Amino acid sequence: MAVSPDDINFMARAIRLAKRGQYTTHPNPRVGCVIVKDGKIIGEGYHQKAGQPHAEINALRGVANGDTKGATAYVTLEPCSHTGKTPPCANALIESEISHVVIAMQDPNPQVAGQGIQRLRDAGIIVDVGILEDQARGLNLGFIKRMEQGLPWIRIKLAMSLDGRTAMASGESQWITGSAARQDVQRLRAKADAILTGSGTLTGDDPSLNVRITSEELGLENGLEYQQPTRVVLDSNLKISEQAKMLKLAGDTLVYTCANSQEKAQKLENAGAKIITLQGKKLALKEVLQDLAKQQINEVHVEAGATLCGALLKEKLVDEIIIYMAPSIMGADARGLFNIPELNTMKDKIDLKIQDIRAVGDDWRLQITVL
């Protein structure tokens, strides 16, 4: 396919539309669609919420006169070919008499995985794939990883001082960063399917681990509301109190444990938790994450202490680290970011790549990819 500037512009528009669903579509992918005829956009839409129409259907419904014969559709993800909560989008495009479909990337979902593309081609529609594929993949890193690897995308969030400390020796940490950074964290939480922490953070801080920002502040349209992410606690010995703050809040709380204590588990379930017991003396982190993926968790936002964050990083389970750095010094006795005792020489160091640095209020936010 010869790619024209118009092709780039129309697909870029579809990607911008898809981003509007970043807080509301999970566990489904974020998808945008633009329908073009005679060089002009005649319809556009995006997937807004799981169970509701997909992007292609919303775009087709947006065509004022319904005349899509001979038009071109630009879609950020391969149209589905199977019936789930909604009918196949590939069929809808065929029935609309669209003659050309441009797709940013193939769907990694095994239920689709090229079948939607083939169905369109079998109907005589010209199909081109691969325009702005990297940008399209960036929309759905968690969904793609879950489909390809059976694991969710793991993002660790940390706040630190200029000298790399996350808490005083006593554990005191509120607040290292300013209000603008804390508001920015709420947006990260809202994007995630789950927020994960360890028993140490839970017993020390009694956190809520919920999203405390309005739909309006997130810029949600059409009366959309985000869902509270699932709270996930790793608690090998089942230390969590039935009085934990998070158990009284809206949304689900999953507690992973190795403890075989039916009485304590029952008390916690009566308080609102769901207990998941795994075998072993301590929790196997990869097994926990695989189980979350089976529950259709795409993105996990981690807010935990240095021990759990270090363990996740050591086991190569982390995809991204977001660090908010405050202009302050906390001293040598304060706690560090990651507890990884095994790093003794330069050859042991863990290499990272800084993708973005920007000011957030008086603090700096570093977006880091784990290589």
Describe, in plain words, how this protein is organized in 3D.
The chain is α/β, with parallel strands linked by helices and 371 residues long. 27% of the residues lie in helices and 22% in strands. The protein has a nine-stranded mixed sheet with strand order 10-9-8-7-11-6-12-14-13. Helix 3 (89-95) runs parallel beside helix 4. The longest helix has 15 residues, at 5-19.
N/C terminus separation: 32 Å
- The pLDDT mean sits at 93
- Determine the strand fraction and express it as a percent band: 15-25%
Radius of gyration: 23 Å
How much helicity do the residues have? 25-40%
The neighbouring-strand order within the major sheet is: 10-9-8-7-11-6-12-14-13
What's the number of extended β-strand segments?
14
Separate helix tally: 11
Report the sheet with the most strands, covering strand number, pairing sense and barrel closure: 9 strands, mixed
List keywords for this structure.
alpha/beta; nine-stranded mixed beta sheet; 371 residues
Write the layout of secondary structure elements.
Layout: H1 5-19, E1 32-37, E2 40-46, H2 55-61, E3 72-75, H3 89-95, E4 100-103, H4 115-122, E5 126-129, H5 133-139, H6 141-149, E6 153-160, H7 179-191, E7 194-198, H8 199-205, E8 230-234, E9 253-257, H9 262-271, E10 273-277, H10 285-294, E11 299-302, H11 306-314, E12 320-325, E13 352-360, E14 363-370
Parallel strand pairs: 3-4, 4-5, 6-11, 6-12, 7-8, 7-11, 8-9, 9-10
Antiparallel strand pairs: 1-2, 1-3, 12-14, 13-14
Helix pairs in contact: 3-4
